[in-house]
Design goal:
The protein is of the alpha+beta class and 454 residues long. The chain is 44% helix and 18% strand. The longest helix is centred in the N-terminal third of the chain and has 27 residues. It is globular, with a radius of gyration of 26 Å.
């Protein structure tokens, strides 16, 4: 769960995280022995016999020392509790076990980032962490600090767990701003060339995709496929794609919940992903798709045409008209009241007439201006685009919630757009390059770390 960042960098090209994490592979020779390929420096045998020891080194509990800094089992438990609380469904025990391992890896990375920032005299102060925590409580959760503290305790987590994550993100941002961003250069020629190509492509389709990338090699391929299928099963049962991407994806886009941003299919640079995405509709999930280095799970978040106005960007003025049913009402009584409500709503003469007519039948009204069509539930979006001012949606609800409709009181249609500006294009290219270097930076920190598992 990403809780705060001053500036989020995004890696917009799918699957490239594999280049930093995939292992060297072996090929089998004529005699059945492992022969080193051009990219294999290990010369591993096909048949591996493990040496049995009294204490199995592969059985690692979720505690560790990272260059002397301790990660406790409680740290892992509190972070897992945060993730589980964000899920709408129960997660099977085996999935929780995998989640704990991934959380431990994330905590190790955060510890390395904080240590590196401190070593380079870029420490994050407690005041900065507390200020960010307060902003997160108010802006993201709509709570006071005390209320957020109480909520975290109630779900089995703690403010310390969230603050630890905030500290890691702020430390990493400090490192990227000083050690990487100043050395990333984008020429005006590159930007101008891309902008001109975008202008030529006005009217073509652009996609907003989410990706979860899992690295694989021939030795662990079957296990990775099984893990990917389990993730897909959980997502289709209502799990949060953003939460799973942040915890399990090995692409750098994991930090933003797997969101690749708005891209054209050619930017995926993987024929398998391009072919799959071209057939997807918003909200659709596909995978696992095998690509070089591993497997990808794709979510189609949205689709639009480059440089063309999207009707779903229209801003609506809406009036909600609703009637609630008292506790203990019979089904027959509810049906009668519902029918009376629907008849009354259909006879209303626009929004100016609605408040008085609603009050006469015991209904309530709520006004809301400036709502983008795309912010509404998908089932309502198409209906709202077909309504004229003063018309209402079909009634929706049930005996528990009551019945309600939305009346369209006004609509501001989107204007034409020329697409992203030159400055926005330059920023996107810079972010992509920063993310590539950030992956290498973190890989080097892991490689040089001294990690002891209890």
């Amino acid at each position: 769960m990403k809780v705060f960042a001053k500036k989020t960098t995004r890696f917009a090209l799918a699957g490239l995280g594999a280049a930093f994490i995939m292992s060297s592979l072996t090929s089998t020779g004529v005699q059945g022995q492992a022969q080193p390929s051009s990219n294999d420096s290990f010369n591993l045998p096909e048949d591996i016999s493990f040496i049995v020891q009294p204490n199995n080194p592969n059985e690692r509990r979720a505690t560790a020392r990272v260059n002397g800094s301790i990660i406790t089992g409680t740290d892992v438990d509190h972070r897992v509790a945060l993730i589980l609380a964000a899920q709408e469904i129960a997660i099977p025990p085996e999935e929780v076990a995998r989640l704990r391992l991934q959380v431990l890896r994330n905590l190790i990375d955060e510890t390395l980032q904080v240590q590196e920032a401190a070593a380079l005299e870029l420490p994050v102060t407690p005041e900065e962490v507390n200020q960010a925590y307060e902003r997160f409580a108010i802006e993201s959760r709509g709570m006071s600090v005390a209320e957020l503290d109480a909520y975290l305790t109630s779900i089995g987590s703690s403010s310390r767990s969230v603050k630890r994550q905030i500290q890691g993100e702020l430390a990493w941002n400090n490192l990227l701003r000083r050690n990487i961003a100043p050395f990333v250069n984008v020429s005006e020629g590159e930007v101008t060339d891309l902008w001109e190509r975008l202008q030529e492509s006005r009217g073509t389709t652009e996609y907003r995709l989410g990706e979860i990338f899992l690295s694989a090699n021939p030795n662990n391929r079957d296990q990775v496929v099984a893990n990917a299928n389990q993730i897909i099963e959980q997502l289709r049962a209502g799990g949060s794609f953003v939460a799973y991407a942040r915890q399990f994806s090995e692409a750098s886009s994991a930090v933003v919940g797997g969101d690749l941003g708005w891209i054209r299919l050619a930017q995926l640079q993987q024929p398998q992903l391009e072919a799959a995405a071209a057939q997807m509709t918003p909200g659709q999930l596909v995978g696992p798709l095998e690509i070089p280095g591993g497997f990808s799970i794709l979510l189609m978040i949205d689709v639009r045409q480059i440089g063309m106005p999207d009707p779903r960007d229209a801003l609506l003025s809406l009036k909600q008209i609703s009637i609630a049913f008292p506790a203990g009402i019979t089904e027959a009584e509810a049906e009668q009241r519902g029918s009376e409500f629907i008849s009354a709503v259909q006879s209303m003469n626009g929004c100016g007439d609605a408040d008085a007519r609603a009050a006469a039948i015991g209904a309530t009204t709520v006004n809301n201006d400036g709502i983008p069509v795309r912010a509404l539930p998908e089932a309502l979006q198409g209906i709202m685009l077909q309504l004229n001012v003063g018309q209402v949606t079909p009634p929706f609800g049930d005996l528990t919630e009551g019945i309600r409709v939305l009346m369209l009181c006004g609509r501001d249609d989107p204007t034409d757009t020329s697409g992203p500006s030159v400055a926005a294009i330059m920023e996107q290219i810079e972010e992509e390059r920063i993310n590539r270097r950030a992956q290498r930076y973190l890989r080097d920190l892991r490689r040089d770390a001294v990690i002891e598992y209890d």
